[in-house]
Amino acid sequence: MDILKRISEYRSQEEQLAWSGTFADYLELVRERPYVTMTAHARVYAMIKAAGVDVVDGVKRYRFFEKEIFGLERALEKLVEEYFHSAAMRLDVRKRILLLMGPVSGGKSTIVTMLKRGLEQFSRTDEGAVYAIEGCPMHEEPLHLIPHGLRPEVEKELGVKIEGNLCPSCQMRLKTEYGGRIEDVRVHRVLISEENRVGIGTFSPSDPKSQDIADLTGSIDFSTITEYGSESDPRAYRFDGELNKANRGIMEFQEMLKCDEKFLWNLLSLTQEGNFKAGRFALISADELIIAHTNEAEYRAFIANKKNEALQSRMIVMPIPYNLRVSDEEKIYAKLIAASDLSNNVHIAPHALRAAAMFSVMSRLKESKKQGMDPVKKMRMYDGESVEGYKAADVKEMQDEFLDEGMSGVDPRYVINRISSALIRRDMTCINALDVLRAIKEGHGPASVVHEGGAGAHFEFHLPRPQGIRPDRQEGSAEGVRLLVRGIGEDAVRKLSGQCGGVLQLDEDPRPADRRGDGSGRAADALHRGADRHFGKREKGVPRRDPDPHVVLRPQGQDVRLQHPRAAARGDREEAVRGPEGCGEDHHVHEDAG
């Protein structure tokens, strides 16, 4: 790929997105494409729908989230349909703050980040195009230029709805720059960008003593106050608060309930009336989706305070629980590991991540009252497996049994931290299921953060206990199993080395085995029959013993390479076979790609 060429092409594509014209030109654009005037909530919903929707087992799955969010289909369906869809229809829920509430590392921040990144990309499409008054610090909807007395006629003519008033800056510019001629006001297309502070705002709480309300609503420009002589002159005010810049898009409140009360009161009128107070101006209109996230403990403390009732009534709370499917939990770990450098340097044995996923999921499950149901059966059924004696309808019953299931337990971040710590501390080149579970258990201590409920409260391994073994001997039995698994791995290494040695002997002594007189003919034939099974049937005319097997056998800790001549001629791939830790010998076997 020519990198400089691609950069040039990308720059050209960005330049082609630019559009500029007068308000009269914009009116013609609205006649052709009325959807360009949609609200921020409607734009977000259209963005999610545009990516595609699948229905699986009666549950909607949104492709917009599928690459980053796993196992939360029910929560996402509720979020999209009960909030975004309703808000897009201009129902009253759009006048509410969307609060994502759930345990740490449950995906709340990821959902918000995806919405922001998605909106940036969607604004670069024809369906998501955003147009604003040129020079407006709040990227205002151009239809706000139409006087209130004419709006009913214009709405009927264009088939759109007009809400909101001109910001103080545009009101003054309309008089001073355009002499009141609305049709001459310049309009241009804007691209949503968090980096450029266009359509996306982010507010993070900090020390209340040092944080100023101006971070949200803007502030007086003292460098120009002497020139214009009044604090109520828009030219002496900086409309650079997060609420100003988030207009037409998304306003994110990180850890919202940690904010000081004086910052939250500004949201009362913004949510209900669609405007907020700034400086010495009248209420300023804003069209933005306000989304916040917090954990359950902070939310409980918030609603316990009677002074917060007014703000609480203006919130839509969406629970975002942990994932409860093993296969999806495994995808989460694989995604996090793939984003690191470990994926290139460490071999993860099959089922290693699945073992961690099973432990995490069972720590989040609540014990069902259904007769004969245990945590393992419940975990399997949640993951789509069939369990004898139960039907698919039983899964729905168990999901409805506990509304707060998944709101506690072991979080994915903790598991990844423990796996990473084990790999780095022990300088391992591979890791198996026992190593993963041991690392998770060893990490439990006074400094660890494990959430209430399930295995999270006591940090016990919720795995089936061996039947018929006394409790005081179960730990010894578990250690015996670990030694057995390790012994199996060492035995496999010895057997592979023996097979390689046999092939070496054939290479050193090219005489047929039955002529050597050492009784090795039967063993040699068995070895070659095994090789034929591995590499496929022998081709007609090719002797059973190939004339020049390629074998490289090195001491422990180095490579043992075995390649069949026909595989070498075809350039087949190499398969790595790992021995026991760390992990002993590394055996690289070239096998037939077919």
Largest sheet: 5 strands, parallel
Number of helices: 26
The radius of gyration over CA amounts to 33 Å
Please estimate the helix content. Answer: 40-55%
What does this structure look like?
The chain is an alpha/beta fold and 594 residues long. The chain folds into three domains: 307 residues, 3-Layer(aba) Sandwich (Rossmann fold); 139 residues, no CATH class; 117 residues, no CATH class. It has 26 helices and 20 strands. The strands form seven sheets. Strands 7-10-13-4-14 form a five-stranded parallel sheet. The chain has a four-stranded mixed sheet with strand order 17-18-20-19. Helix 3 crosses helix 4 and helix 3 packs across helix 5. The longest helix has 38 residues. The chain is elongated and about 95 Å long. The two termini are 30 Å apart.
Which helices and strands occur, and which strands form pairs?
Elements: H1 3-16, E1 20-22, H2 23-32, H3 40-50, E2 53-56, E3 59-62, H4 73-88, E4 97-101, H5 108-122, E5 130-133, H6 151-158, H7 168-176, E6 186-190, E7 200-203, H8 214-217, E8 219-220, H9 225-228, E9 237-238, H10 242-245, E10 250-254, H11 261-264, H12 266-273, E11 275-276, E12 284-285, E13 289-294, H13 296-304, H14 309-312, E14 315-319, H15 326-338, H16 342-345, E15 347-348, H17 352-364, H18 375-382, H19 392-401, H20 412-425, E16 430-431, H21 433-442, H22 454-458, H23 471-508, H24 513-516, H25 521-535, E17 550-553, E18 559-563, H26 565-570, E19 574-578, E20 586-590
Parallel strand pairs: 4-13, 4-14, 7-10, 10-13, 15-16, 18-20
Antiparallel strand pairs: 1-6, 2-3, 5-6, 8-9, 11-12, 17-18, 19-20
